[in-house]
Write a structure and sequence with these properties.
Rossmann fold; five-stranded parallel beta sheet; alpha/beta; 3 domains
């Protein structure tokens, strides 16, 4: 049974909400002023607070600020007769879940409350995002404090001191290069070169000369001797990204470097000896490629001395708030904007999303949102999420469709200044269809959103 606190200086409104919400099965406590409500928050745990905006002494926004100190995990919905775009921004900036006009339809309020309570999939520590995100743990340039990523930090810290070859495994966008840099920067080789090359991004004819260099006159265009990346990395670390794309002929040459620490330039006759630590990465199943005969087994075991698995973002969702905050700050600086936070509802949309593109996709979403946002907080209508890939564990189709539909309706209402008629035209649906969708999704359209 959800525990709800109602704060309103109007006794009639308090009594009405207490009766209505009690009939809905909620446990309801009422307060006539902010001081009493704050004292209650210190003594009791509330899942949700419904508070009036305009009250004597302490208004709803100020109460919201102070209530977060007393009960940071509690969701807050503001009720106001003076709704405006500024109200929404102010409320969400301070951590409100949402707000609703006081001439609300009872069913709309019920739907909003149900929606808020059902969205408490955001864990209690994440609900404190706005003021606690500074507690994020960083390791090198990696960011996150989930138990999944902390295990990775621990492993990286252990292997960094060794000279063993590392194979980093993970889906695209999980931060494999950042992990490789963290290993290098925490190793005895930290002051030596860190050289990276994408084995899948360079044509086979050029890849060999990039890795091993060439001698003057060894082929057309070779006007001078050129050192390869292995020579440049000597004493340091070379990071071979997308190692699964390495052509067979180069797998043989790489195996010699791994085993003997020597190689020859193209057209060269002398062995060149190097001291290089090799970190490789792939988003493919190299063991399967070995079975299929497309990747050398001996090379696989030489590279995979210590495997480091990077979890996909959908398996470390506790890190989404801190990563989002990091990217908001990054792109606010880049675009010269003063955007410091993300609304809790917008954060919930991110928490529900599966992120097939992982951290790279989250960064792209935040970059786009910061570019589009005109207020000082990321609001839901400026989040554009697209997920057309089905992960192995499947998807919650109804939830995804509802989330996507909610975003576009909010965006259309914002563009139309709150006019449902114009919003329906923008979405190329009928007015009745828009009303039906708003009711189905439990939305309360607001001017300026």
């Amino acid at each position: 049974m959800a525990n709800i606190l109602v704060l309103d200086d109007d006794k009639g409104m308090r009594d009405f909400l207490e009766i209505m919400l009690s009939r809905e099965g909620y446990k309801v406590t009422c307060a006539a002023d902010a001081e009493k409500a704050l004292n209650l928050c210190k003594k009791m745990k509330f899942d949700l607070i419904l508070t009036d905006l305009k009250m004597p002494k302490v208004d709803g926004i100020e109460f919201l600020k102070r209530s977060r100190d007393a009960s940071p995990e509690t969701l807050v919905i503001l009720m106001t007769a003076y709704a405006s775009g500024e109200t929404a921004v102010s409320a969400m900036k301070e951590g409100a879940y949402d707000y609703i006009e006081k001439d609300f339809d009872i069913d709309d309020l019920k739907a909003l409350i149900q929606q808020a309570l059902s969205k408490k999939g955001i864990k209690r520590e994440d609900a404190q995002f706005i003021r606690e995100v500074e507690g994020a743990v960083c390791f090198g340039r990696m960011i996150g404090n989930s138990k999944e990523i902390l295990k990775v930090y621990t492993l990286i810290n252990k292997v960094s001191a060794t000279s063993a070859n590392i194979l980093i495994l993970g889906e695209s966008g999980t931060g494999k290069e950042l992990a490789a840099r963290a290993i290098h920067e925490n190793s005895p080789r930290a002051n030596m070169p860190f050289i990276t090359i994408n084995c899948g991004g360079i044509p086979e004819t050029l890849l060999e000369s990039e890795l091993f260099g060439y001698m003057k006159g060894s082929f057309t265009g070779a006007h001078t001797d050129k050192a390869g990346l292995f020579e440049m990395a000597s004493g340091g670390t070379i990071f071979l990204d997308e190692i699964g794309e390495l052509p067979s002929v180069l797998q043989v040459k790489l195996l010699r470097v791994v085993q003997e620490k020597t190689f020859r330039r193209i057209g060269g006759s002398e062995d060149i000896k190097v001291d290089v630590r090799i970190i490789s990465a792939t988003n493919q199943n190299l063991a399967e490629k070995v079975k299929a005969g497309s990747f050398r087994e001996d090379l696989y075991y030489r590279l995979n001395v210590i495997p480091v698995h990077l979890p996909p973002l959908r398996e470390r969702k506790d890190d989404i708030p801190v990563l989002a905050k990091h990217f908001i700050e990054k792109y606010s600086r880049e675009f010269n904007k003063e955007i410091g936070n993300i609304s809790l509802y917008a954060l919930q949309l991110l928490m529900e999303y599966q992120f097939p593109g992982n951290i790279r996709e989250l960064e792209n979403i935040i970059e786009r949102s910061v570019a589009l946002e005109t207020s000082n907080i990321i609001l839901p209508e400026n989040l554009i999420l697209q997920d057309f890939n089905i992960p192995e564990q499947g998807v919650q189709l109804n939830s995804l469709l509802a989330s996507y539909e909610r975003q576009w309706i909010a965006k259309a209402l914002g563009k139309s200044g709150g006019s449902k008629t114009k919003a329906a035209e923008l979405l190329h649906i009928s007015f009745d269809s828009l009303r039906y969708r708003i009711e189905k999704l439990g939305l309360e359209e607001k001017p300026g959103k």
